[in-house]
Design a protein that fits this description.
Elements: H1 5-24, E1 28-29, H2 39-42, E2 46-47, E3 50-52, H3 63-72, E4 75-83, E5 88-96, H4 108-114, E6 118-129, E7 132-143, E8 146-156, E9 159-161, H5 163-176, E10 179-180, E11 183-189, H6 195-212, H7 219-222
Parallel strand pairs: 1-10
Antiparallel strand pairs: 2-3, 3-4, 4-5, 5-11, 6-7, 7-8, 8-9, 8-11
C-alpha cells in the first residue's frame, strides 16, 4: 500500500515526538551524585537552648495519610523539642529521592487539609537566621481549639522553592538537564494562639539548629545559595 505524502509527514512527526519525549525524560537520579542523607544522624537531639522532648510526637497523621507519605518519602523525621522557657517546637523533615510529578513533596497546606484542619493565612516570607535568609512559607492550621502556626520550606535538588509553580519549575529544570531531582520538606510548628510569638520562637529554633549542623551538610537542608 502506497502512503500519501501527508501520511508520511504525520508518521515522521509522530516518531519525532516520541523521540523528543524520550530524550527529555530524565533517567539519572540526582541523589546518586551526592552523599546519602541520614536525617536521624544529621539533626542533633540537643542544640543551643533546645533539647528533645521524648514524651511528645511531632506529627498528627491518620493512617491513610501515613500510607501516602510512605510512598512519597524515603526518609522522615518527626521530633518535638523544648527549651528552658518551656516553649515547644515540633519539627518534621521528609526526604524523597524521586521528585517526579507522581511522587513530589506534599506541602503542609495539602496534608493538614487532608486531616481535617482548616488552613488559612498562607503567605511567602523570608526567615532571618544565623546562616542567612531562607525563603519560607507560613500558614495557620486549626482544628477545633488547636491552633498551629507553621513555617516550612521545600527543597528541590539544590533549590528552595515556595508554592506549586516554583516547585514544578524546579523539577522541570532538573528534568531538562537529565536529572530526577530529590526533594525535602522542612517544617516547624507550634501549638499557640499567638501567631507572631509562635513565628518568633520558630525563627529562633531554626537559627539555632542551622548553627549546630555542620556547614558541609547544611546544603542538604537549605540548598545552595544563588550565584
Amino acid at each position: 500500500m502506497k502512503l500519501s505524502k501527508s501520511s508520511i509527514v504525520l508518521c515522521v512527526a509522530m516518531l519525532g515526538s516520541v523521540a523528543a519525549t524520550k530524550a527529555l525524560t530524565p533517567t539519572t537520579a540526582l541523589s546518586t551524585h551526592q552523599e546519602k542523607i541520614d536525617l536521624d544522624k544529621l539533626i542533633p537531639q540537643q542544640f543551643g537552648d533546645w533539647k528533645l522532648d521524648p514524651n511528645l510526637a511531632a506529627a498528627v497523621v491518620n493512617p491513610d495519610v501515613l500510607n501516602s507519605l510512605n510512598e512519597i518519602y524515603s526518609q522522615t523525621l518527626s521530633r518535638t523539642y523544648i527549651n528552658r522557657q518551656g516553649e515547644r517546637v515540633m519539627l518534621s523533615i521528609a526526604y524523597g529521592d524521586n521528585q517526579s510529578r507522581q511522587l513530589q513533596v506534599h506541602r503542609p497546606e495539602v496534608c493538614y487539609s487532608a486531616q481535617g484542619f482548616g488552613v488559612s493565612q498562607l503567605e511567602k516570607q523570608v526567615l532571618q537566621t544565623s546562616i542567612g535568609e531562607i525563603p519560607v512559607m507560613r500558614l495557620v492550621a486549626q482544628q477545633g481549639t488547636r491552633v498551629e502556626p507553621i513555617t516550612y520550606w521545600v527543597l528541590i535538588g539544590h533549590t528552595v522553592v515556595r508554592g506549586n509553580v516554583e516547585q514544578g519549575m524546579a523539577r522541570l529544570r532538573y528534568g531538562l538537564s537529565g536529572f530526577i531531582a530529590d526533594g525535602l520538606l522542612f517544617r516547624v510548628s507550634t501549638i499557640s494562639g499567638d501567631k507572631q510569638s509562635a513565628y518568633a520562637t520558630q525563627q529562633a529554633f531554626v537559627s539555632a539548629l542551622m548553627t549546630s549542623v555542620p556547614g558541609t551538610q547544611r546544603p542538604r537542608l537549605v540548598g545552595m545559595p544563588a550565584t
